[in-house]
Structures are given as structure tokens and as C-alpha cells.
Amino acid sequence: MSLTGLPLLVVVALLAIGCAAGTVVMWSRLRRWRVVVRTVGILMTEATVVLAVGLQVNRSEQFYPTWAALAGDTGTESAVAPARAGDLDATLARRSTLPWQPPELPSWQLAKAPTVTVPPDYLAQGSARYPVLITLGGTDAGAAPVAGVVTLTLAPTRSTTAQNLRTLADALRKDIRVTEGGWAMVAGADKAALAGEFTRAQPARFRALAVVEHSKDATLTSVGTVPSGTALAAVRPETPPGPSGTLPPGVADLTAAAPNAWQTAVTWVAAKLSSPLSPPLLLPTASTP
């Protein structure tokens, strides 16, 4: 049986239960050997419980992936975990931007199919996973390639909600090599409420949100609260003097008039994202001769 396999864990867990049950049953029997039976039963129960817990921890953390590794025979070479290619990688070899039409698309209630744009090095870095920049509304500038980032342009309708979009991340991770979290979002002022709802629905996923406002007096009230780990910015035509139009504490106030406002927002959130992630190194499982 594998050291990290479920069968071994089940066998040890059953053995622990059996030792505990046997100790209870024999607790008041065999008067002559009562002390010995009780001592052995308690020790075996404790040992098997500790062993079961250790196997579960090792199964989760992969400290010793094989029996050879447990014996200290880990070899001298590291191996790189194989990266799963995105289902659309072959299509992206011919063009870097394409309409995205996953099976889940009808449930998202969008005005049209989303557009996916991968960075120039996406195919060259065939094992890396990229953070995602989602744009809601806005201009076509949001679909321009961004270094180190996969851009997903959505066209929401009045029917689009965060609940509708709950399957979007898993669908994208199947088709494109993207990270689980550390994403960002840019939204037009009319999509600010949906952007706020989206970040609250998936609080661990988004690192930054920028809203492109059309008025210098914007207050971001339609966004609502965002998770504590999500940076928030407003891009306004100009920053008014005095208390009028003051943004909430902690919100970045960016000034950029059209047609540069959208690109300013994209640049700001992209700077908050991490670099593409390569597959992690795995412990070797075979020794060298």
C-alpha cells in the first residue's frame, strides 16, 4: 500500500478503533493479567492513534511521498510537476485574442461571449500560470495585451450577477493556464455595483479593483465594501479640491481623463498582481544509482 494512500490510513484507523474497543472489553477480565492487559491496550491504542494522525498529516503535506523517502532514500535530483495545458492553448498558438465560449456561458447572462487575451509570452512560458485581469464594460482598451496577465473582457447585462458568474473562474482555469487567485478587476462606473458584488462573493480571489468614473464627484457608493485584501481605486477626470467628492479612506484616487482613464485603471491594477507562477518543484521519488 502507498504511504500516502487512503487504504493504509483506513487500515490504521480501524486498527486504532479495534485496540480501543479491545481494551474496553478486556478492562475488567483476566484478573491475574489485568494490569498487563490494561497497560498493553492503552499503549497500543495511543500508538495507533498517533500513527493514524501522522499518516493523515503526511498525506496532506506530502512530507514523505513514498516508502523510500521515509527510509531517507530521496535521490539527488528534483523533478518539476507537470503543468496541465489549457484546452485553448493550441488555438492561442495562432492568435493571442479570441472569443471565449465555454459550456457555462449561457448561465452568465452576458451581452456577448467574453474575449480572452493572453500576454505575448504565454506560449513561450508553456508551464506558467498567469493572474487574471477581468474588465467589466469600458472600452476595447481593456482587451489590449498586458504583460504577465491574462485579460478577460466581459460585457455584463442588467441580468448579470455575481451568482451568475460563480462558475467563471473554474471554467477559465480549465481552458487557460491561470492562477487560482491573485486576480484583479477594472469596471466602468455603471458596472461598479456588480464589481463590488463579485469581489465580495469571492473574497480570496481578487487583489485589486479599479472603477473608472465619469464624474469628478464620484464617491464609489455603488461599489459597497470590498474584502480587506482587495485594493480599491477610483479613476476620475480630475480631483476636486476640498471635501466635495472625497473618497473613502484607503481608496486610491487616480486622475485621468478620457481616453486615457481606462488604460490608467488597467495599469494600476496590473501593478498589484504577482508574476506568473511556474509549477512547484516536487521531492524526487527515485534514488540515483
In spatial order, strands of the major sheet run 2-3-5-4-6-7-8-9
Portion in strands: 5-15%
Please estimate the helix content: 25-40%
Under CATH, the topology of the largest domain can be stated as: Rossmann fold
Structural class: alpha/beta
Count of β-strands? 10
Radius of gyration over alpha carbons? 28 Å
Q: Which ranges are low-confidence, i.e. pLDDT below 50, for 5 or more consecutive residues?
A: 76-82, 280-289
Transmembrane segments: 6-28, 35-55
Keywords: Membrane, Transmembrane, Transmembrane helix
Question: Can you offer a commentary on this structure?
Answer:
- The chain crosses the membrane at residues 6-28, 35-55.
- Keywords: Membrane, Transmembrane, Transmembrane helix.
- The protein is an alpha/beta fold and 289 residues long.
- It folds into two domains: 6-70; 89-271, Rossmann fold.
- Helices cover 30% and strands 15% of the residues.
- The protein is built from seven helices and ten strands.
- The protein has helices at 6-26, 34-61, 67-70, 89-92, 168-175, 192-201, 261-271; strands spanning 79-80, 97-99, 115-117, 132-136, 150-154, 183-188, 206-212, 231-236, 252-255, 281-282.
- It has an eight-stranded mixed sheet, with helices on both faces. It has a two-stranded antiparallel sheet with strand order 1-10.
- The two termini are 24 Å apart.
